[in-house]
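WARN retry 2 of 3 for item q-0093 after timeout on previous attempt; input resubmitted unchanged.
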Amino acid sequence: MASFSDIQRVVNGEGHFAPYNHITVTRIEGREADGTLEIRPESLNPMGIVHGGALVALADTVAGCAAFTCGRVCVTLDCSMQYLAPGTGSQIHCLATPKKLGKTILVYDAVLTNDQGQTVATGTYTFFAKETRIEDAPF
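OK item q-0093 returned
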């Protein structure tokens, strides 16, 4: 039987996408989730700022964990990101909060900030809640 702490443990587990990309989910609680991207040389684009794809990966991972709070396994249907400032510093933080929670379609807002609290990007993430309950998920 999977719990939110099980989901967090699996997502952050060795050999999975998140840790390979220096992403850590730090909290799944209520209908929200938090996470961080540790900025490493491989996170940067040729201009020396965090690559937009790394920001999307952080937001999708964190918002996906937040979507799981509906009690069912969720998959991403769509996302859009707005890049507002260069990603610099040592970490990017992401907070995912619900915008619309339907029966099968869930929409989350993601706000990404740098070490100084400046908003680097915002995104909207849409998820489909499958029939599989997290208690029955294979993790």
